[in-house]
Give the backbone structure.
Amino acid sequence: MPELPEVETIVRALQNGGRGSPPLIGRVLQGAELRWQRSLAAPQPDAFLEKIRLQPVKAVARRGKFILIHLNQATLLIHLRMSGDLRLEPATDETGSPVPPAAHDRVIFHFTDGWRLAFNDPRKFGRVWLADDPQAVLNGLGPEPLDESLTAEEFHRRLSRFQRQLKPLLLDQSFIAGLGNIYTDEALHLAGLHPLTPSHLLSSEDAARLLNAIRTVLQEGIRRNGASIDWVYRGGSFQNHFRAYGRSGQPCPECGTPIARRIIGQRSTHFCPACQPLKVAPAGGNSSTS
């Protein structure tokens, strides 16, 4: 948390205005405060502060769970990790007095027009990069799940290359970019696939159904501005429409069977034992369900 829909919601607000703030595009950086230097992954602080000075924001984009702020001569990349958020706000109040930073603001970007962009991160896991070439940071990411160039056939080929359980594989950002715990559970439930099913046992029909389910839950999450389930991210309503995630013991919306919860790959996982049967390979080598 935040996952692709939450990050996309933040990006769209920075692009067009939203969440109570105007657009970020067009503002010119005056400087930055590194209130916790380890939030800066690269380059070194002196080089970072020198290079961003007086650079205008040209565009804002998303890749996986990364926020990309394209400047005139470089790109800021921000990964929110477990608890990060961005606030675009005035640096002074209506009387002209400076507004104190929030308790967990780790990096504050100041703009020449008196606004600032605060990277707030209570758990200190988030990171900021400044790179001439964003691919130097993004190179290991898998395809975007909403990109039409990822066809059902290609997705099936990618699944077939591995003999990994579906849940951990879908969380692997090098396999597909942007999915986290919430939307993986939701997609697997919608597709009727058990989170422990080995990926190579999926048929082409299974793979197509899973890809469609991933896109459906992500698009619905974006439409509802993401999910607000704790203090980390606020403003979305997708949590009111969960099918499986966080609903252990509650009835499955499809069949009424209580939603089960178990730890898979050190992550809490929610699924319906009836609607999501486990597919296993029998002794003869052909897949079956159990």
About this structure: Residues 54 and 120 are 23 Å apart (CA to CA).
